[in-house]
Amino acid sequence: MSSIFFNHPIELESLATLEAILEGIIPFIKNKDILLFEGPLGAGKTTSARFIIQALVGEKIDVPSPTFNLVHTYETRDFPLWHFDLYRLKNEEELFDIGIEEALSDGVLMIEWPEKGGQILPLSTLKLQFHFGENDTRFLTLIPSREWQERIKNDTH
Fold this sequence. Notes:
7-stranded mixed beta sheet, 27% helix, globular
């Protein structure tokens, strides 16, 4: 995956386009990473999280949206995987009630609606920012931390 994909909106012409982009980043995900999924309802956050979870678990398991439970956990070969949906959070302190401290200590965190977590969440390692353009065209911008940029550049996954 080339850094040309970073910090530039990519038009999601189809589900296959989205999956190809995600397949490019999946090999680089490692323990203690945080993936933040931002964007409006229906833009592709949960679909993307579901695809990444199934790839990391290694099978097409059922991946329900954590909208009502707020968090689901999965076991991968290398680390626990935490899928948070913060849409219904009323305040930042509720993050502690749903296990954010434990998740931050071990595993990969995938967080939908991270803006609801306020200042409690550490800086992201990779932000997946979805938005709509004209005629409901969807776009994805990958915004990496310096660590992610170096990881991709040096291909150290």
